Amino acid sequence: MTRWTPADYNPDDFANRRHIGPSPAEMTEMLKVVGARDLEALIDQTVPAEIRQAEPLDWPALSEAALLARMRQVAARNKVMTSLIGQGYYGTFTPPAIQRNILENPAWYTAYTPYQPEIAQGRLEALLNYQTMVSDLTGLPVANASLLDEATAAAEAMAMAQRVAKSKAKAFFVSRNLHPQTIAVIRTRALPLGIEVIVDDPEALDPKAVFGAIFQYPGTHGHIRDLSAECAALHDAGAVAIVATDLLALCLLKEPGAMGADIAIGSSQRFGVPMGFGGPHAAFMACRDEMKRAMPGRIVGVSVDAAGNKAYRLALQTREQHIRREKATSNVCTAQALLAVMASFYAVFHGPIGLRAIAQRVHLNAVTVANALRAAGADVQPDAFFDTITVRVGVGQAGILAAAEQRGINLRKVGRDRVGISVDETTDTGVIARLLDAFGITEEAVPAEAPAIPGELLRDSDYLTHPVFHMNRAESEMMRYMRRLSDRDLALDRAMIPLGSCTMKLNAAAEMMPVTWPEFGALHPFAPPAQTEGYAEVIADLTRMLCEITGYDAFSMQPNSGAQGEYAGLLTIQAWHRSRGEDRDICLIPVSAHGTNPASAQMCGMKVVVVKSAPNGDIDLEDFTRKAADAGDRLAAVMITYPSTHGVFEDTVREVCRITHDHGGQVYIDGANMNALVGLVKPGEIGGDVSHLNLHKTFAIPHGGGGPGMGPIGVKAHLAPFLPADPRQEDGGAVSAAPYGSASILLISWAYCLMMGGAGLTQATRVAILGANYIAARLKAAYPVLFMGNRGRVAHECILDTRPFAQHGVTVDDIAKRLIDNGFHAPTMSWPVPGTLMVEPTESETKAELDRFITAMLAIRDEITDVAEGRIAAADSPLRHAPHTVENLVAEWDRAYSREQGCFPPGAFRVDKYWPPVGRVDNVAGDRNLICACPPLEVYATAAE
């Protein structure tokens, strides 16, 4: 007789059945190894009682089905219009093959930044294609692998120009024809650096009075002009010429490099990346060859592997801010890599002929509109343009804007008497008819045949000549190319990525799906508020939850990376000090703080004073007290990471905050390790005045091969009036081009919080701490664990000390590369302590995957023992020859260990083994012979020989 037994399994419990990896039974086994009675006992042993929050997070959780239904309701509150606003954001058509195979493919969106090049050859090739595309279209030889947005790229170009200019002038010239949001961010970045910003018409430029100048081409209102004379005049004065430009326009227009520009910047958004209410989109920068070593951000270069085969890698990597700290020239360490990959594939998908055809269609549609308006008696400017015109409508401005809106079109309001019209790839005859009807023109427009581009401004040089841009564009071939590249990579869809401080957790499909819905993807960031009520609801509710999680009173969603959040937070502190008539410029930063902190402080014009660590990894309180007192009334802020990057909860955190406040400073708590705090500790309640949150870490936005990210900042009430303002206000302290940064990916974090619920988020934190302590407990006999905390526990990450093995010739690099043979991405290498590995398992990994990683690490330890005890030399060991490729497997084998040991070490899958496409990459060769664009085919042949 069958009995009815109620099931205790809730399939709708997203937090415990989908997001959190270990089952209750597995957690029990892990707790036994750790030596804790239960999960709460472990937390009590790990997190100081005096900082624990009093009230639990208590909002209810939604199932995946309920979440998607809620998202549909919210999406319906957004009104999708045809946007002809322009101003740096344009309608575009994302080829379905790219949407499905790149944007919606976890092989691409769960990958990490390509620091380990052997397991990132696919995304590195895609990013090299991106650099080649940018370099070719701008006419400048070196491009980087994307920046955050056009406005911040312009600000980075200003700072770069100051570094490389021969002129000693202190001012920077900004053409009035730049997009307003770009001018706003330039002003923000210039103020703390003491740079005078001169905004005027190009005709007013005095080259001798400035170290550099930036022009928009085409201008924000459509104007195009040859900038050769301005560039030459700047060069004569030892100054730098920068051009903000549009990649689609450059398919027809004379390129900046041909005009003598030193640097070109812009956004690749209209190359197939939805507007998304402001982002994410990949910005770009290209420069003259002699300036490449001063360029911020990441550059993909070409090197060779151990066998002499061509291999890609990040070049000039020592400029990364985690390494250079207070000597950094920029805090840019996040690139919008996933979006750069999309833009690069858009160029591969269409090729130069296709891009030119799209550009010609866009331009002729704009000319068609201009001709029809002029024929009806309208005053249309300018005479020469690419895709944007401005129409003087006088007192009828409001009526025209309203009439266009009634017909489903948004136009740009320009001043009090004009409207702007920017035509894009999605503009068709129907849109043109509706647009003209809003002006009272009912006759069918006559399609233009002649361009409105002067002959001297028409491009006469070739671009995208590399074979990759001329491949057969049948969808079958495109699909296979995307698959080949993704197969070369190791992403989270294949294996655990145990990177300390980077929190590579599950990016659930249900969280990702709404991002590509038109109701969220097709909105312009400057659309009227009545059309964006859905986004307003998302942002308001996410803000409410983040305030509850952190104990802060207000949030700004504008910073579009964690480093950008650090910068915005420090600016907020500075603005508060200024409002009180105080001139404070010293920032105390412990060596245990996050690596980008010193760079952010430098960018704010602060003087960085480094605070020592105590032997147990805590902040040296005596050193901190002394340096705070020395700073006195110049102390602006302290930047701490909590728990620290050493992976411990410090008992002295409240004391550090008290000392800072006693000296009049403000406390910045870096949110990099928020995954150890959610539901347990509120930074705003332990003394923090401001924190940024890495939504791409703690709150489930995927890393995407190096971005997108979001770094919103939370502040206590007294700092709220000084948060970044709308970037359309030129003097408002904006840090990004759009009011809410990369707004479309806020949907992911909101969905994550809704499906986890308050209790689920807290449980995730507990399990993350359990996972790290489980790894530490199982590996501490093989690898010393640094900084176990005062109670013998680590936080959500632990540092394995591999430095003792150096005496036997085994390096941390050897261990990292050997892990590739086991099918793992290495933990964070040599940071924050050189020669160590920092491991963060996250709550999403199952016990089986944790055990597989532990098995791999123990097997590697046995191989180190073989070297230490003289059974094999380090140079002959599998450690030094790692990683092993299929080519190694099938080639003649003359090594001092077996094929089995080399290619199938413990922990590696047998059937589904990941094979790296290249052997160990030669970093020195790549930097010594810097190649940052797709090499010609003969280079491939030479490498093969």
Description:
The structure is a single chain. By secondary structure, the protein is an alpha/beta fold. The protein has 31 helices and 26 strands. The strands form 7 sheets. It has a 7-stranded mixed β-sheet with strand order 2-8-7-6-5-3-4, with helices on both faces. Strands 11-12-15-14 form a 4-stranded antiparallel β-sheet, covered by helices on one side. Helix 21 links the parallel strand 17 (586-590) and strand 18. Residues 940-945 have low confidence and may be disordered.
Kindly report the average pLDDT value.
95
Q: Give the low-pLDDT segments.
A: 940-945
Biggest sheet overview: 7 strands, mixed
> So what's the overall shape?
globular
Q: Taking strands numbered 1, 2, ... along the chain, how are they ordered across the largest sheet?
A: 2-8-7-6-5-3-4
Number of helix segments? Answer: 31
Helix proportion range: 25-40%
| Distance between the amino and carboxyl termini | 74 Å
How many strands in all? 26
Strand content: 5-15%
Structural class: alpha/beta
* C-alpha-based Rg, rounded: 28 Å
Oligomeric composition of the shown chains? single chain
